[in-house]
Amino acid sequence: MRILKINEIPKEPLVNPLFTGSDVTRQSLVSGSKDLSVGIVNFGRGVRNKFHRHDGDQVLIIIAGRGMVATEAEKRIVTMGEIVVFPAGEKHWHGAIQDSEFSHIVITRVGVKLTQLED
To answer: Within 13 Å, how many C-alpha atoms sit on residue 11's CB side?
Structure first.
């Protein structure tokens, strides 16, 4: 068993062409798991990721700020305490709204492939 404190886990810059800006960090919550990838993604104001999809389900648990989640069919503002489930293959994006930072826990299976669908 391991017990971690979120505020003691370092925030590592997440530099990736998937994001619309550079103010994004990740905190790895479960390292070394053979089954789960679990981390916190922190977005600066107005930063989001671009349309993408995963070949496995993705779960987001909103823990801070106000953000937006979107599919081709709808956009929704989400806040702390809400949970978003994107089924495998659903085209989507998520990130901070213009006037708020935004953080969520992201959960996927280890090895789930992400395909970016927007330049």
So the answer is: 10
- State if pTM tops 0.85: yes
Q: Say if 101 falls within a structural domain.
A: yes
pLDDT digit string (tens) for 74-87?
Answer: 999 999 999 999 99
Work out how many domains the chain is built from and give that number: 1
Q: What is the DSSP string of 42-108?
A: EE-TT-BBPSEEESS-EEEEEEEEEEEEEESS-EEEEETT-EEEE-TT--EEEEE-TT--EEEEEEE
- CATH code of residue 33: 2.60.120.10
Structural domain that includes position 108: 6-116
84 closest CA partner among 101, 106, 100 = 106
Looking at the domain assignment, is residue 1 inside a domain?
A: no
